[in-house]
């Protein structure tokens, strides 16, 4: 199966669904991570161009931990809007990865507008990926991908409807996040006083308690005609 995580910033996929992506990869699915913005504001001291390139290289290294491919869309960090360009870029990411399952931000994640826009646009355009008259570099998909929304930051307001047991891939999730050295060791602590490594363990343990395992990640599936399903496509 072809799995695509579309997230706003470098490190978002690793923090909120890295264990699930690792689980897909371990069972042999093709995993792609699309990063929508370039992360150019994510440093207290480095200029935009320099930190954006650092973060791009970190994202590549993190994807390589599980053998995933990276798509870098390169929109301006913190200034993402629902425009024709944004929609076409996300449609192309879905088509280029031949996505059957898309993991993206919950549109009600109010932590950051880039999260909100990424989740909303990704869900909105999924139905457009099969339409021939909407032209991008890659051909239309044969089938509309199924969209799952990932955890909100700190889990605020988010009540999962499905859980993935990531007990056996939690260390891979940690390894992926560790590649984002500029964020784990610098920016997140400076800006928010946040220990990202601690946060992912606390939330994964909490979701694990809810679902009866050691560590878990929670999801809500987008339910919309004509792309609803029975069962689950989560690993």
UniProtKB/TrEMBL annotation:
Superkingdom classification of source: Bacteria
What Gene Ontology terms describe what this protein does at the molecular function level? hydrolase activity, acting on carbon-nitrogen (but not peptide) bonds, in linear amides
Matching InterPro entries? GlcNAc_PI_deacetylase-related, LmbE-like_dom_sf
PANTHER family reported for this sequence: N-ACETYL-ALPHA-D-GLUCOSAMINYL L-MALATE DEACETYLASE 1, N-ACETYLGLUCOSAMINYL-PHOSPHATIDYLINOSITOL DE-N-ACETYLASE-RELATED
Protein name per the record: GlcNAc-PI de-N-acetylase
Q: Which organism is it from?
A: Cohnella abietis
Q: What is the lineage of its organism?
A: Bacteria, Bacillati, Bacillota, Bacilli, Bacillales
């Amino acid at each position: 199966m072809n799995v695509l995580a579309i997230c706003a910033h470098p490190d978002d996929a690793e923090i909120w669904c890295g264990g699930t992506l690792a689980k897909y990869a371990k069972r042999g699915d093709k995993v792609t991570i699309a990063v929508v913005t370039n992360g150019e504001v994510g440093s207290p001291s480095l200029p935009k161009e320099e930190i954006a390139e650092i973060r791009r290289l970190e994202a590549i290294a993190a994807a390589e931990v599980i053998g995933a491919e990276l798509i870098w869309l390169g929109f301006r960090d913190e200034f993402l809007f629902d425009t024709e360009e944004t929609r076409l870029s996300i449609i192309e990411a879905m088509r280029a990865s031949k996505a059957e399952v898309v993991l993206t931000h919950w549109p009600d994640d109010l932590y950051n507008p880039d999260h909100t826009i990424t989740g909303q646009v990704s869900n909105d355009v999924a139905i457009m990926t099969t339409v021939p008259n909407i032209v991008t570099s890659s051909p239309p998909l044969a089938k509309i991908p199924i969209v799952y929304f990932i955890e909100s930051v700190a889990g605020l307001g988010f009540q999962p409807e499905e859980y993935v047991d990531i007990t056996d891939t939690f260390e891979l999730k940690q390894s992926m996040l560790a590649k984002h050295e500029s964020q784990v060791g610098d920016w997140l602590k400076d800006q928010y006083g946040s220990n990202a490594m601690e946060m992912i363990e606390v939330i994964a343990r909490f979701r694990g308690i809810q679902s009866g395992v050691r560590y878990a990640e929670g999801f809500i599936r987008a339910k919309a005609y004509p792309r609803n399903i029975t069962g689950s496509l989560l690993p």
